[in-house]
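Margin note: ligand = adenosine-5'-diphosphate.
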Amino acid sequence: MNILHQLRWKLFLSHMLIVVIGVVVLLATAFFVAGAQLGETPVSVSDVFGVSETTIPAPAAPTAAQEQFQFVVEESLLVAGFAALAAAIIVSLYVSRRIVEPLQELSLVSRRLAQGYYRERTVIQSDDEMADLSSSINQLADALEQTEQRRLTLLADVAHELRTPLTTIEGYMEGLIDSVIEPEAETFALIQHEATRLKWLIQELALLSRAEAGQLRVETKPVALQEIIQNVVIQFRPQFTAQEVTLDLELPDAPTIVRADPDRIEQVLINLLANALQYTPPEGTVTIEVTPSDYFAQVEIRDSGIGIPSEHLPHIFERFYRVDKSRTRRSGGTGIGLTIARHLVYAHGGEIWAESSGIGHGAHFYFTLPMEETERELA
Ligand code: ADP
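Resulting structure:
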C-alpha cells in the first residue's frame, strides 16, 4: 500500500495541513494588515478593503520603533507557528495511534476469522464507536464458532449414523456369504430397513444443503389441505398402531384450499408427524387440526409426549439443534428435520412455530399456508 494511503499518514498530514494553513494565514495577516498600518505594505488598504484612497489618508513612513515592532510581531508569529507545528506533530501522532492501532487489531482479527480461527476475539477497552465495532466483531465470531461447533458435531454424528447401518449391512452380508446366517426373509428385511435409513439420511442432508443454498423450488397450485394430510396419514397409520399412539384428525368438512406445493407440504407434515410419534410414548395421542381463516390456513400438530423445555424452544428450528443429544442420537435424529420444515414453509410465504408447557406436557407445532385467492373471494 502506498504509504500516503495509510490512515495514520492521512491523519498526520491533515493535522499538519491545518497548522500550516493557520500559520500562513497569521503571517499573511500580520504582513498585510500590520504592514499597511505601519505604511510598509506593497498593497494599499484600498486594494484590500475596496475603500477609496481619498477617504483614508496615506500613512506616514514607519519609524524605527514601528519597524522594530513589526519585526517582533512577525518573529513571534514564526516562533508560535513552529511551536504549533511541533505540538501538532505530537498530538497527531498520539491521536492517529489511538485510532489506527485498534483498527489494525480489528482488521487482524477479521482476517483470522476469515481464515477459520473462530476462537479469535478483540480486546478493545474503550467506550467509543471502536468498542461498538469490536463488540459486533466478537458477536460475529461467537456465532461463527457456534455454527462451526455444530457443523463438527454434525459431521461426527453423520459419520456415526452412516457407519451404524453400514456395519449392520456389512455384517449380515458377510454372514450370508459365509453361510453363517440363514438367508431368511427376516434377514433381508433387516438389511432393507438399514438401507432405507441410510437413504433417508442422505436425502435429508441433500435437501438441507439445497434449502440453505436457496435452491429449493416450490411449484404451488390450489390444493386441498385435507388431501395432503390424508396422504401422509395413510403412510403413518401402521407406525402409530405399532407404537400404540392414537392419531386423531380434526379437519373441517369443507375442503381448505391453499396455494401450495403438495410434495413439499407432505415433507413438512412427515417431519412434524415423525417427531410427534418419536417423542410420544405408548398410549399417547397426536392430533392434526386445520383452522382456515381469511388469508391463511393454520395446521396444528399437537402431541401428548415428552414436551420441550422453554429454554430450548427458540432454538429447535436451527440446523443441527437437538434438545437431548444422547436421546435423539440413539433414535437417529440429526436436528435437521425442523430446519428443512421451516425452509419449506417460508418458501410458501407461511410461518412455522412451536409451543410447549415444558417437560411432560407435550408439544404443539403450528404452520400456516396462504389460502387460495378464489377461496377468499367466494367466502
Ligand atoms: P431430529 O432429527 O433430532 O428430530 P428435528 O429438527 O426434527 O431433529 O428436531 C429438533 C429437536 O427438537 C429434536 O432433537 C427434539 O429434541 C425436539 N423436538 C422436535 N419435535 C418434538 C416433539 N414433538 N416433542 C418433543 N421434542 C421435539
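The radius of gyration is 39 Å.
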